[in-house]
């Protein structure tokens, strides 16, 4: 099985590289769309057989039957959820990572990869304003990033409580404060950790503020909290919490300050919105998903800690067969998150940053913000459309006057069936609405106009 002949390797290698290059050159890529299980049973059928069907046949099957059954998240009119639109450089380098058999969990095994990943993390840490000792790891996504940060926060709080001799109720903090606009992964992390999420009310602008946070913390008892989670760019609206006042309250009570920038953290690179993030430099931990708004392929979340030693104490796995790694003073990425084995998933992002330079990232993020502002203005200009909240970042939520939930759904289904666009309904305070999330620099003003024209 491993003994492919040179000839076979070359033939299959050429075919895979040609397919990949063609895919990356498509402009635009076809949107494609889901098929039913029954349809796939007919078109693809049984693919795994005792003798194997051969690489070329499997590739053909992927190209003709499987790939078209997957929506292209990098299509310029894919504006649902949060799209993923990697640079060609990042996507191509993913092939290299796959071909290189690198273990990205330890310095001993993957020093070169870890060195490069850490420079990419450093770029983000500098955007945040974290101190030189800050560091972290690339994890699969914001969900694992948030969970890992909260595990580090709780471990730290418990060590401190034990150190101060606080025992009994309140001695082992179990609460997390966040808003209801926080991402679902925060509640999910609390569930996994058997922690309690305390929902803090937001202000008129939908933001978590220090004032409301202080009230909630005092109402429940400061010693019961091990973390506060602020969001720098909520998923539904792109709202950035009032990080400065929130960070101040965290310091006042000595509570870990985590900032979830999975989607919106990328805005740190854009001077036109950088002021929204004031106070973020006080974060004890921070995440941003380069697979969202920083043009890296799935799956890639940057997780950073102000004091990595605290995370290391919480996450290092101990076992006799790992002693050789844990005893060394080296930087082992695996020590900073949930999980052990890891792919060097930060490398495609690093390669693209190294290739294009950070100025290109600033320009690309600004470009998406420009198109978002255009979209908001274009929506406001049309009689039957209404912006629900002026966008802070690159998400705009709006309503089509007179439409029911069923109307939004039928419209969305039609656009996808026609492979024209992928824009799903969302909801806010019980009302069905729709939403554009613009993180693809290829999404143009023309795309926005074309989609809005279908809502007349
Ligand atoms: C997307 C998102 C997450 C979850 O990230 P995944 O990479 O999907 O696990 C967490 N928080 C926010 C604010 C997000 O937008």
From TrEMBL:
A GO molecular-function annotation: transaminase activity
Cofactor requirement: pyridoxal 5'-phosphate
InterPro entries: Aromatic_deC, PyrdxlP-dep_de-COase, PyrdxlP-dep_Trfase, PyrdxlP-dep_Trfase_major, PyrdxlP-dep_Trfase_small, Pyridoxal-P_BS
Pfam families assigned: Pyridoxal_deC
Family: Belongs to the group II decarboxylase family.
DNA-binding among keywords: no
Protein name as annotated: Aminotransferase class V-fold PLP-dependent enzyme
Keyword entries, A-Z: Aminotransferase, Decarboxylase, Lyase, Pyridoxal phosphate, Transferase
Plastid recorded as keyword: no
Entry-linked Gene3D superfamilies: Aspartate Aminotransferase, domain 1, Type I PLP-dependent aspartate aminotransferase-like (Major domain)
UniProt xrefs under PROSITE patterns: DDC_GAD_HDC_YDC (PS00392)
């Amino acid at each position: 099985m491993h003994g492919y002949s040179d000839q076979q390797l070359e033939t299959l290698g050429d075919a895979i590289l040609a397919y990949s290059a063609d895919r990356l050159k498509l402009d635009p890529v076809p949107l494609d769309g889901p098929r039913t299980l029954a349809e796939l049973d007919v078109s693809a059928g049984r693919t795994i057989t005792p003798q194997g069907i051969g690489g070329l046949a499997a590739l053909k099957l992927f190209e003709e039957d499987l790939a078209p059954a997957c929506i292209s998240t990098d299509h310029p009119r894919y504006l649902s959820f949060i799209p993923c639109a990697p640079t060609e450089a990042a996507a191509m380098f993913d092939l290299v990572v796959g071909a290189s058999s690198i273990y990205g969990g330890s310095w001993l095994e993957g020093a070169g990869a870890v060195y490069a990943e850490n420079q990419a993390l450093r770029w983000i840490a500098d955007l945040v304003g974290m101190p030189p000792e800050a560091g972290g790891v690339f994890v699969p996504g914001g969900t694992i990033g948030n969970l890992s940060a909260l595990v580090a926060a709780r471990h730290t709080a418990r060590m401190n409580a034990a150190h101060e001799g606080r025992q009994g109720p309140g001695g082992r903090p179990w609460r997390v404060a966040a808003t209801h606009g926080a991402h679902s992964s925060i509640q999910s992390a609390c569930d996994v950790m058997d922690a309690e999420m305390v929902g803090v009310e937001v202000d008129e602008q939908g933001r978590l503020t220090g004032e409301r946070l202080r009230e909630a913390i005092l109402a429940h008892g400061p010693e019961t909290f091990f973390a506060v989670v602020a969001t720098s760019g909520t998923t539904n609206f792109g709202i950035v919490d009032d990080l400065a006042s929130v960070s101040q309250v965290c310091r006042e009570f000595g509570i870990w300050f985590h900032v979830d920038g999975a989607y919106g953290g990328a805005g740190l690179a854009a001077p036109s919105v950088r002021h929204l993030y004031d106070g973020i430099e006080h974060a004890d931990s921070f995440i941003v998903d380069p697979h969202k708004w920083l043009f890296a392929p799935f799956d890639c979340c940057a997780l950073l800690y102000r004091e990595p030693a605290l995370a290391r104490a919480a996450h290092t796995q101990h076992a006799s067969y790992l002693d050789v790694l844990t005893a060394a003073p080296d930087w082992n990425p695996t020590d900073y998150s949930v999980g052990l084995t890891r792919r060097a998933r930060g490398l495609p992002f690093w390669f693209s940053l190294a290739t294009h330079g950070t100025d290109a990232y600033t320009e690309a993020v600004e470009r998406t913000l420009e198109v978002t502002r255009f979209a908001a203005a274009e929506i406001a200009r049309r009689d039957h459309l209404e912006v629900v909240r002026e966008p802070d970042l690159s998400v705009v939520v709006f309503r089509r006057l007179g439409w029911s939930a069923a109307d939004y759904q039928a419209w969305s289904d039609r656009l996808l069936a026609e492979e024209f666009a992928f824009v799903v309904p969302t909801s806010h305070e019980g009302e069905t609405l729709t939403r554009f999330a613009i993180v693809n620099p290829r999404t143009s003003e023309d795309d926005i106009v074309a989609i809005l024209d279908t809502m007349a």
